[in-house]
Design a protein that fits this description.
The chain is α/β, with parallel strands linked by helices. Helices cover 32% and strands 24% of the residues. Strand 6, helix 5 and strand 7 form a beta-alpha-beta unit. It starts with a helix and ends with a helix. The structure holds 1-O-phosphono-alpha-D-ribofuranose.
Length: 263
């Protein structure tokens, strides 16, 4: 059986009855409830039933793709993602984003739950990703594909997000392979390197989407203070609770950003 993103996009079109999805949203840990803010789905497909996808391994990553009409266009909302630490390889970690681009998406909105390195960040606060540090040691690109990542996180979409939610601040996201959380010494190192947020996703997806010419926006939800910045232990269930609690604000932001991307 073929596993190409093009075949996955064709299967998605058949299963959803929607020939083209204009914008894609990838929902990270705990972001599921925010999906309802984007709009009502006309179809929801388990991604493991599409070519090239494997069942998602991270807790709370439902593993479905929703087709959501927005005005005359359609958004593809992916509930959950494949992380590098799940062991399926880099191509698998970006397969959903490549499928979304093959399905027609010219804008990809990536979300995640992240540790807050910047001490001014509060748990439950969304932060617009302004740039990233890819510390996975990997790239989804193979061969001489010299993609410019100067404005990897689209300035126009960032401005639109700040208009929608004037309280939004911006920060640099460091993407590590995981799955372990970071040590306090690593967090001090990351702060020195210029990181404000840390997590285990997003950076490879951004590179893959930019290589395909899509615009990218990234929103991290600060789910916990990073290791060593407080006395608190880091627990994935608490991460999920913090992101769930912000669903009303983040859902409205996603809806607004999808609409702005389609304008
Ligand atoms: C840790 O709690 C998990 O949540 C985040 C981290 O990357 C890690 O997988 O997941 P998302 O980045 O998919 O939101």
């Amino acid at each position: 059986m073929s596993t190409s993103p093009q075949d996955a996009a064709a299967a998605l079109a058949e299963r959803t009855g929607v020939a083209r999805h204009d914008v894609a949203v990838v929902l990270g840990s705990g972001w599921g409830p925010a999906a309802d803010g984007i709009g009502e789905a006309t179809a929801e497909v388990p991604v493991a039933e599409l070519p090239g996808f494997t069942p998602l391994g991270a807790p709370d990553h439902r593993g479905t793709a929703r087709s959501v009409p927005v005005g005359d266009a359609h958004a593809l909302v992916l509930l959950g993602r494949t992380h590098l630490y799940e062991g399926h390889g880099v191509a698998q970690a970006v397969h959903a984003v490549r499928t979304a681009c093959a399905a027609g998406a010219r804008t990809v909105i990536l979300t995640n739950a992240a540790g807050g390195i910047d001490p001014s960040y509060a748990v439950g606060q969304p932060v617009l990703i302004s740039d990233h540090l890819n510390l996975t040691g990997r790239s989804p690109l193979v061969g001489p594909e010299f993609v410019d990542l100067t404005d990897a996180y689209d300035p126009g979409l960032r401005a639109a997000a700040r208009d929608l939610d004037p309280g939004l601040v911006e920060g640099v996201y460091a993407g590590l392979p995981g799955p372990h959380f970071e040590t306090p010494a690593e967090i001090r190192m990351l702060r020195t390197l210029g990181a404000d947020l840390v997590g285990m996703s997003t950076v490879l997806e951004t590179i893959a989407a930019r290589a395909l010419g899509a615009r990218v926006a990234g929103i991290a939800l600060v789910s916990n203070p990073a290791a060593g910045t407080t006395d608190e232990a880091i627990d994935h269930l608490a991460v999920l609770d913090a992101v769930h609690a912000a669903a009303e604000r983040t859902g409205a932001l996603l809806r607004g950003l999808v609409t702005a991307a389609l304008a």
